[in-house]
User: What shape does this take?
Amino acid sequence: MNFVNALKVAWKAILTNKSRSILTMLGVIIGVGSVILLVSIGNGLQVYIEDTFEDLGSNAIYVYPTEVFGENGFGQQDERSFVAAKQFSTKHLQDLQRYRRQIKEVLPESVRGTTVRYRDTQKDITVTGTTQVYENVRNTKTIKGRFFSDSETRAGQRVAVLGYKITQDLFGNSDPVGRTIRLKGVNFEVIGVAEEKGGGAFGGPPFDNYIFIPLEAFFRLFDSTDINSFTVQVRNKEEIPEVIELLTEYLEETDNRDAKEYDVIDQREILDTINQVLGVLTIGLGGIAAISLLVGGIGIMNIMLVSVTERTREIGLRKAIGATPNQILLQFLIESSLLSLVGGAIGVGLASLASFLMVSLADFPSAITWQSILLAFGVSVSVGVIFGVAPARKASKLSPIEALRSE
Amino acid sequence: MKKSDVVLQLTEVVKVYKLGEQTITALNNVDLTVFKGEFVAIMGSSGAGKSTMLQIASLLDNPTSGHILLHNQDVSSYSEKKLAKIRNQEIGFVFQQFNLLNRTSALENVALPLIYTGVSFKERQRRATKILEEVGLGDRLHNTPNQLSGGQQQRVAIARALVNDPTLLFADEPTGNLDSKSGEEIMDILSGLHKQGRTIVMVTHEEDIANYAQRVIRMQDGKILFDRQQKPKKSK
Assistant: This one.
């Protein structure tokens, strides 16, 4: 009896008890489906976070005072939310800009929460004072108008680039470019609208709710020359550790800043930490889902034992006309593997469908990978084989005459 | 008869069953020699050991002690795998209960042993069709057992037993589940096979059926009571 014949016999046996086979497969379907879905959600989140970081700008090092978020959190109305942290100044900016060999751009950012007013509409938003390099370093395109220029930055002109959502909130569908908004009671001319960005940095408010103004204008508006953070874009990815050392040394020398008062980190480091957490989470959830696969396997074993008992006479006959114990073993192993494999295939199908629906309807990132599908198939075949061994061995060891005598 | 004509030989075969505390001796030191081309009927009342002897002779069951020689080869100590191969190629078996696979056509039932022999699909179809035609079921190839009468089912079973052209054909009460007319048909087929030179060993408890055989062995309490030649009843 070759493999193809055994496969045919197994397929026929499965079709003979359709509803029983489907119910048995259900365990594997749920197990495989949930493992793949959870792993793909984990992968999707990872891809999503990588993308978000890519949006934040690549090859970047972040220089933050240690207590970025203050006591009352980040970007809130309370203007003293940054009081807890020591701040940087324009001197640091000028100094950093001198390291032209290693550093491509230095992006300063000062952030405050305040209110914006256009005609009768008033909104709480986050204002970022920055320079023209923001556009490139943060990978932020304007969909209307333009970003402020080098000269506007230097002059500290009262011009503003609006985030995508705040534009919708204030202007609806009309064109905001050229209009005047009031920030903290001061008039600013809208010169551009940034593209939609989605989430915010490190759990902060979404970028789509930000208003960007030149750094000098920010200093005047809030009567402060503090710079909250720098984003340093290096020329070469490989030089990141070197530049981190350089920056740390520089900060230590200039201000006698205590090493604990600021952090110099690159995005890889942040990303690695998040990915590590996500990875553990994915494995954990996948592991829980794998338990249902185990239960599915036990279901298969159970039904195969029933099948062996029911078909004892058939086994006896097959042995009487020349089936060897190994051929009987193979036949039942193939049957249990086939049950498991078909269940696995349906599970993969359902998980793909669910993943597709999540992406298209809920816009939730979910990415089914070939590896997870192959893994699921591998696992479901192994489940079929492992849980099929006991029933198949039982069948192969039956004495032909006793099997034939059974009713 | 010459020694080279011996197909099957049982020497000092004992079979003991254990039923709880009780031990039952189904075969008590039995010797039997079957020659090529013989049609042997084993008779006896229920519990005389005739079926046990048939099962041991056809290698479906192991003796407790004693030897079984097939073509002068002692097969008593063969592995399950080797025995399966002999059952497949040297032995055909016809059961009282037919033992056909349900939901499986006559053709596939007959072709089943050939799957284990490793014969190709085309050749299996060809040989199974030919043998079904020989037992008069050429028009029933694709019927499943529940679409066939008892007599027809037993004819399918005989075709299955013959499909590998075995040296020995065993039949355990082949007419036991049939009405007398169908039984006669089956016996005519077996007689016909005997005339073609096939060696047949059959168990029955009916005189009428045993009359078709050329040699009758009567058993009692696990022993052979007598063993005699007779003129077989004429088949149609």
